[in-house]
Amino acid sequence: MKEQYIVTGNEVVSLPTIRESDGGLEGISILYMAAKGMLEICGSKDLPLLRPFAEIDGARAVLRNFCWRRTHSWIPSFTAEADGLQISGMLLAPVGERGFCYRLEVSSGGEKHTVRFGLEGCWAETLHSVNESKPVHGERHVYDSGWNHAFVMDMRVGVSLVAFAPIYTVQPEQSRTTYGYEVGPDEDIRYLLSCSAALEAHQTVSENFWFGVGFEEVAASASAKEMLRQGFDAEYQKTCGWLAKRERTTGDAKLDECLNRNMFFSFFFGSGMTLDTEELVLVTSRSPRYYVSAAYWDRDSLLWCFPAILMADSRYAREILEYAFGRQGKNVGVHSRYIDGTVLEPGFELDELCAPILALASYVRQTGDKAILTQPAVSSGVERILSRLELKKNPDVALYETMLQPTDDMRLYRYITYDNVLVWRTFRDLDELYRNLWPEQRRAAIRENAEAVQKAIMDNCVVTKDGRKIYAWSVDLEGRWNVYDEPPGSLLLLPYYGFCGFEDEAWSNTASFIRRKDYAYSFAECPIAEIGCPHAPHPWILSIANSLLSGNINSAREHLLRCPMDNGIACESVDEFTGESTTGDAFATCAGFLAYAIDRAFGKN
User: Fold this and answer.
1) Which of 338, 495, 516, 590 stands the most exposed, by the fewest C-beta atoms within 10 Å?
2) Residues 434, 374: contact at Cβ < 8 Å?
3) DSSP code of 46?
4) C-alpha torsion angle, residues 276, 278, 281, 286 (rounded to 10)
5) What is the pLDDT of residues 146-171, one digit of tens each?
6) Global pTM?
7) 84 beta partners
8) DSSP 531-552
């Protein structure tokens, strides 16, 4: 059976692979600017980074029947059974901290027992991830440290790269907990943290195992010690309060769970703080299970993830815009980039060039914060986007070309209708944003550009198919066009962007056509009847979000509630019959767009 994973994390540390089957944590990931991506601290195939264990009356017990829940849709906890005892666990990554806690609790039944419980684990390798995960070659060390009254592990590549340190007490002479470690034959570091107690009948004992990360020994140990000093209850209440303040409701418990789980996943896995430079960055996903993890796309972060983050925290959203227009502004519109803003995959994408301004406009509309418009990085970024748009304009017709489609696949014809609607929206947004900031003459020119693009779309991108007007997917302005759609940039979203209404004849015909059974990627009459495309030939979760935003809210709701997805987290595509993930597990930016679409369609906030 395929392993099911639970996720949690905070701004600094991601816990992307918590196993439902045994509570094992396979690894953690951190963002690292000097590495242009993500570092993963991983266990081995036989022994994960951390795994709970229990011994009862001197014999190792088998933990079974794990039952999981999520507090505020984000903090995972479980109960399990072990030879008449109940084992409870929680993985808490407190907001604002550089680490996490694995809390364990053992409760006896009607008999006395001597118990020993805790965590065993292994640091087997360190991986560097930007789309692909590759081993980091260096030296791993483990040693006693006076900084945490326990031990510290670190990875060195000449100098320290990252350190990982547990802590459980500042008074070891009074603690029931002990530790041990060894270096295995494969140079993997194996360790054990255990708490011993004599349990009376119906008695409970617990221990909090804190783990800090840092650049080196002191930082990692101090990170763990800070959480220990604050105390579990304080860190738990702080994090619960943060989550509760941001939770959304639709009035439907199932939708609420999906909305909030994906909103928090998008927040903590679509963005984060680098360990080495403490900078906020945006990524497709901080989970190595997503096939293009730890890199930046304008479209993914600003059209999909940003709306959910704006729902959750407008101040954080402002910082995101500063990053997008700042570090990432130089190469705006380029296919994908590293987290430091340099080019990863070259290739021009028109939707990505428009994305920063569309995100900026949504932020200003919601917050009224027009001061951001005068920030130097934003002002220069807007000018850069306009200059690059001009370079992509046809000399005779107000249509703008792209090289890659919203799937990042090569276009067929250079003028894509959806992309040009985003150009129209960009001009409209700039006119609105810079009222009283730009001279009227310039705003008038911007309005003229918007009107010209709108006319060019209606004149050149509306075609006749089977005797009915529809929007072509793309055109070449020489008489050729194609009928097509893809969820990452769907024609279904034209009303969402305000280009037309649901009553628009050409749009209505287009929507009907791509949902017909004879359209190759419609999946009509399947239990999950949403749109796919050749990039992933199954229904996309983004298509469910598109349907929620384009008037098909009832059918989209049914489809969504039939989808287990990636254990409740958005993935790229799902099986059209079972709704289980087929591609793109742990897709953090998609999770944001799904959460936003649910809230927009059904939300009561």
Assistant:
1) 516
2) no
3) S
4) 60
5) 899 899 999 999 999 999 999 998 67
6) 0.96
7) none
8) --BTTB-S-BHHHHHHHHHTT-
